[in-house]
Amino acid sequence: MNEHTIWSYWTLTVTFLAIGLLIWPTALFLAMIVNLAHAIHFLLRQPGIFAFPMQVRICFLSLLVLGQAPFFGWVHWVQLIGGTVKLTTGYCPLARMMSLLPWNRNQPISWGLLNTVIFTPPVSGSIVKIVSPE
To answer: Would you call 92 helix, strand, or coil by DSSP?
Structure first.
């Protein structure tokens, strides 16, 4: 999937998320629909539900659903902040955190690894190639 298409999906998702939080709550469901379409489109183009980019999309969608539960609305605000950071700088906080999951890295957690994950500037492609070089 090309970068323009990916960018468009994330822009729509974050836009609907913002509208849902600030103006029209129903737009949160539109954010879920766009994010689900993004995941399905990605899966059809690059099969592999366990691929890191799919993990990020599934996690983001799961958080959108979780934010609908009572007392978890704050999760949407975190997603809005993280999504805005992703769109404006290319730095994806969610992908950075997910790269630390045991199945996404080939080295133990250490201060050096945390430093790398947090402070490495945005990368082209996936942060996993920095965290777990082959």
So the answer is: coil
Tell me whether residue 111 is exposed, middle or buried, using C-beta atoms within 10 angstroms of its C-beta: 0 to 12, 13 to 18, 19 or more: exposed
Alpha carbon distance 64, 20 (integer Å):
11
pLDDT tens for 53-84 read 899 999 999 999 999 999 999 999 999 999 99
Cβ contacts of 80 within 8 Å, gap of 6 or more: 14, 17, 18, 21
Helix residue ranges, H only, the chain? 3-22, 27-45, 52-66, 74-89, 93-98, 111-119, 128-131
Cα torsion 18, 62, 127, 134 to 10°: value is -170
Closest CA to 16 of 68, 78, 83: 83
- Residue 51 backbone class (left: φ over 0; alpha: ψ -120 to 50; beta: rest): beta
**CA–CA separation, 103 vs 67, rounded Å?**
25
Q: Is the model's pLDDT at 96 over the cut of 70?
A: yes
- 38 in Cβ contact with 9 (< 8 Å): yes
